[in-house]
Write a structure and sequence with these properties.
This protein is α+β, with helices and mostly antiparallel strands and 701 residues long. It has 26 helices and 22 strands. Strands 1, 2, 3, 4, 5 and 6 form a six-stranded mixed β-sheet that branches. The protein has a five-stranded mixed β-sheet with strand order 8-7-11-9-10, covered by helices on one side. Strands 12-20-21-19-22 form a five-stranded antiparallel β-sheet, with helices on one face. α8 packs antiparallel against α9, α8 packs across α10 and α11 packs across α20. It is elongated.
């Protein structure tokens, strides 16, 4: 099954006059009659399942087909007498679903479960019978599929149904593989239903199942589902796209000639490669038309180059960019950095001398298999830990089929969904965050300070990283260092960043309501919302951004200890730079005859001199006391002001005045005017203030 060449017109169930290239697609009515007649011999597979066996052996030559025969016999016997709404015997449905998976390369256990996936729900067959006949693995998968079979019954039940579906999928992604193939066959035969029900099923498929197919990397199912949904929900756009493709079919296609040129180039370079022209499916053509307006002949397909090894991919790329003119903006390397759904390929585009631009995809044959079938192509990556231990000890293990599976290929996004779905307070919240999560089409990887990694959706912030790493303990996060630099929690992260998260020691710390504006992951948003709902008073306090700055003014003012060379002139220390001994200073006479003293590097000094003002010499008195204004920047937390003033008091310094600005993105700015008994103690004072937990910078005003 081609991931890029499929389209609604290629399905005989919808248009019997059309047939797929290569192996003839099954005639479901003929299979139905064969199913009613039953097997003709116990020594060979029934004719009705012969196509499944042929497709399965193409991918797994040594597969044991006897289990498929037994599964088919049980399914056919159980469903005998049941009919589909389209009029065919019901057995044609599990047969068609199984054939879809067999063509994708699913292993025998998946195909066995696929044949039986409706027996427990729709017939008298029990899970125990399935387990006794076919083993715990098949029983587990059939049970998982059975739990999500009511997905189409009523919009009100959808959120909770999808929650169950995710739980089942998380324990074994083969459950979702069968569900996707099941939905594809139902979509192919959707024409027998009422238009309103067609639209409802198509919308659910569009909103959840197609994104899940993308996440699982099953492009062959995803693209065909997209086309079928497109035809139902957007019939006018579909007809326009169909007309575009039909018009192109009557014109000369430049892609075969470009493919011949590519073959010649690679043959001359000694690179063994298979070059194909891959037609775009309907939705892909529609997107290109929206993006580019008028379509060119080369826009209706892409060139696919298949090679043997990873290194050959880059060798092909080098030859393509050497012998053709590359379109640099179209180059993407998904070999070195695979997508979140295991997809790997090199994407580029080249321009030919006659002005055509062709998109080229380069991948190995194994990459191609995974790109088409995703997790289905990985076979059976599951093994129960007790079974593995027992096998090592040489003893049989009574493995619990419902225990958590060890899955080395489970994508990070799926693990995250399984984590946060347990915390979602209600089905509506779950539904909204599920759709938001599935809408993400790219992942980033960031490194933790301890050397671990975090997988996050693109656009995630430090807040998301905090909850991904620390869970509910992230409520006390007060800041972060990204690549060694202090930054706010709202800062977005990029692929490859190193994140060190700073947590408050105070157990009463909690998130600010504004964190929700910067949280992208469901886990973070649900945790923050739950905490704010549980602490309404604290939530109101964190959102009180309109409050005035807190100011504290001391009882005495204190005089300046600078003397100007101007007899009887009063002297003031400038508030813009707050000079202290032994700063180099300059004075200027201002209105009223007073002399204002600035540090020589103060911007005001340059401005005074620029307008022709003459400076007055100033020197410091022998007394060591001085007044200075310091700015402290910190992460917000309870009792911070008290801790800072205590640190200042321990240094023997008097607070003349203090101003605390409202928090912004969990950061607080403090301004202190202080009277020091000795200017030499200023560096020690600033160090003491920096050592207060949560304070990350102290500077002169």
């Amino acid at each position: 099954m081609s991931a890029e060449a499929t389209n609604p017109e290629a399905h005989p169930e919808a248009r019997p006059e059309l047939r797929r290239r290569g192996r003839t697609r099954l005639d479901l009515r003929r299979l139905g009659r064969a199913a009613l007649l039953g097997p003709t011999s116990r020594d060979r597979l029934p004719d009705a399942i012969g196509h499944v066996a042929e497709a399965h052996r193409a991918h797994h030559p040594d597969a044991d087909l006897s289990v498929l025969r037994r599964a088919y016999l049980l399914a056919e016997t159980s469903h005998r007498g049941q009919m589909r709404k389209s009029g065919e015997p019901y057995i044609t449905h599990p047969l068609a679903v199984t054939l879809i998976l067999a063509e994708l390369g699913a292993e025998t256990t998946t195909l066995t479960a696929s044949l039986l996936h409706d027996t427990v729900e729709d017939t008298d067959v029990t899970l125990d019978q399935v387990g006794e006949e076919f083993g715990d693995e098949v029983r587990f998968i059939v049970d998982g599929v059975t739990k999500v079979e009511k997905i189409d019954y009523g919009a009100a039940a959808e959120p909770e149904t999808f929650r169950k579906m995710l739980v089942a999928t998380g324990n074994d992604v083969r459950v979702m593989s069968i569900k996707l193939a099941d939905r594809l066959h139902n979509m192919r035969t959707l024409g027998v239903m009422r238009p309103e029900k067609q639209a409802r099923i198509a919308k659910v498929t569009r909103d959840v199942l197609i994104p899940l197919a993308e996440r699982l990397g099953v492009q062959a199912l995803k693209t065909e589902l997209e086309d079928l949904v497109f035809a139902i929900l957007h019939p006018e756009e579909y007809e326009r796209t169909r007309a575009l493709i039909a018009a192109h079919a009557g014109e000369r296609d430049p892609l075969p000639a470009i493919a011949d040129s590519v073959r010649t180039v690679l043959r001359d370079a000694g690179i063994a490669a298979e070059v194909q022209v891959r037609p775009r499916h309907f939705v892909s053509v529609h997107r290109i038309a929206l993006k580019r307006g008028e379509l060119r002949g080369s826009d209706f397909g892409r060139i696919l180059v298949l090679v043997g090894e990873n290194a050959d991919c880059y060798a092909v790329l080098g030859e393509m960019h050497t012998c053709f003119t590359p379109v640099v903006s179209e180059f993407k390397d998904f070999v070195a950095t695979p997508k979140f759904n295991l997809y790997q390929s090199l994407h580029t585009a080249v321009a030919t001398p006659d002005g055509h631009v062709a998109e080229v995809i380069v991948r190995t044959r194994q990459m191609h298999r995974v790109a088409e079938a995703g997790v289905v192509a990985l076979g059976n990556p599951y093994a129960t830990a007790p079974a593995a231990a027992a096998a090592a000890a040489g003893a049989p293990a009574a493995a619990d089929p419902y225990e958590e599976r060890v899955d080395p290929t489970r994508p990070g996004w799926l693990s995250r969904l399984l984590d946060w779905q347990q915390s979602a307070p209600d089905p509506d919240t779950f539904w909204s965050v599920l759709r938001a999560e599935l809408a993400q089409d790219r992942e980033i990887t960031v490194f933790r300070a301890d050397g671990g990694t975090l997988g996050l959706p693109a656009g995630a912030s430090c807040i998301d990283a905090a909850y991904a790493q620390h869970g509910e303990a992230a409520h006390g996060c007060i800041g972060a260092r990204v690549n060694g630099r202090l930054t706010s929690l709202s800062s977005p992260l990029s692929d490859g960043d190193t994140v060190q998260l700073l947590l408050a020691q105070d157990a009463s710390s909690g998130p600010a309501a504004e964190w929700l504006d910067h949280a992208r992951t469901p886990a973070a948003r649900i945790a923050i919302s739950s905490w704010l709902d549980a602490h309404p008073d604290r939530a109101m306090a964190t959102t009180s951004a309109a409050r005035a700055p807190l100011s504290v003014v001391g009882a005495r003012g204190g005089g300046a200890n600078a003397v100007a060379d101007l007899p009887n002139a009063p002297v003031r220390l400038a508030g813009c730079c707050t000079p202290v001994p032994p700063d180099a200073v300059a004075g200027f006479v201002v209105r009223g005859g007073a002399v204002t003293v600035h540090r020589v590097h103060c911007a005001a000094v340059a401005q005074m001199r620029a307008v022709g003002r003459t400076s007055v010499a100033v020197h410091w008195r022998a007394t060591a006391d001085c007044r200075v204004t310091l700015l402290a920047e910190s992460f917000g937390r309870p009792h911070l002001l008290a801790d800072l003033t205590e640190a200042i008091a321990r240094e023997g310094v008097e607070v003349v005045s203090a101003t605390v600005e409202p928090p912004v993105e969990q950061r607080v700015r403090h301004s202190y005017t202080l009277q020091l008994p000795d200017a030499a103690g200023l560096p020690a004072l600033m160090r003491a203030m920096r050592n207060v937990p949560g304070v990350y910078d102290v500077s002169r005003a």
